[in-house]
Amino acid sequence: MKICKTIDELRSALDGKKSAFVPTMGNLHSGHIALMNLAFKQKQADRVDATVASIFVNRLQFLPHEDFDSYPRTFEPDCAQLEAAGCDVVFAPLEKDMYPEPQGYKVHPPAGLADILEGHFRPGFFVGVSTVVMKLFQIVQPRIAIFGKKDYQQLMVIKNMVRQMAMPIEIIGHETERAADGLALSSRNGYLSEAERAEAVHLSRALKALIAAHAAGGQDIAALEAQALAALAARGWQPDYLTLRRRADLQAPSAQDTAGSLVALGAARLGKTRLIDNMEC
Ligand code: PAF
Fold first, then answer.
1. What is the pLDDT of residues 113-168, one digit of tens each?
2. Fold of the CATH domain 187-280
3. By CB atoms within 10 Å of each CB, which of 15, 41, 98, 110 scores lowest?
4. Set 32, 174, 202, 214: catalytic member
5. Domain 2-174: top CATH class
6. Pocket of ligand 1 contains residue 203 by CB under 6 Å
7. Which residues of the chain form CATH 3.30.1300.10?
8. Is 119 close to ligand 1, i.e. is its CB under 6 Å away?
9. Where in the chain is the domain with CATH 3.40.50.620?
10. How far apart are CA 74 and CA 212, in angstroms?
11. Residue 23: CB within 6 Å of ligand 1?
């Protein structure tokens, strides 16, 4: 496995090879490794010649009060896991190589998709994500890029960007990996205390309960969402949103939108840690 720190090194390592790409911010867990396993399968199936992962904690997608400085950086174990999963090239630029000058040109995804849910609670987040992903795509020029469905809205923002900008990249979404109790795997789970970790599963349970209550019919969605928020808050969480949306555009569903076309999404803070999760339904 080759580790490239600069754009030039990466370009000469790939030398025009068709690649399957997994962008990450490092601190890898088995959710990320599942993405790399899928990239490796693309190579085995001769769809690409090489697998690439990036490790870069992207300052542009953090708000000033967020955890950019304390975000866990675990480069050596990350590389060992990537190598074991069949990664050919790791791109791990320094900030001065990714952003040698202030990034004045940015990608602004449409407000209707990017200023709701995560974008509402983390203003500018999807500008930061879209900008770095656009830049990583320009650098790596992958044939295929793989993202986890845990960041459901992110996956949609990227898919729409690639489609509208006619970028020749196939975007594949991978199912969320979960711990045995159902907690979605996330680098931020590492911030949880033992007691918080035991409690954390209740975010996915709240989404399941919301889906079940909606399937049972009777009440309007806003009332069900308010109940779900109150139930989680009563357990000591500070929920940002728990909501049922249309998968197609993440807008509130109408009566015509039936099961199989929806997704339940949630974000909530437990102590100092903000967790997100979602389930298609
Ligand atoms: O999902 C992530 O880890 C990040 O948002 C990404 C896509 C690597 C961009 O920094």
1. 999 999 999 999 999 999 999 999 999 999 999 999 999 999 999 999 999 999 99
2. Pantoate--beta-alanine Ligase; Chain: A,domain 2 (3.30.1300)
3. 15
4. 32
5. alpha beta
6. no
7. 187-280
8. no
9. 2-174
10. 39
11. yes
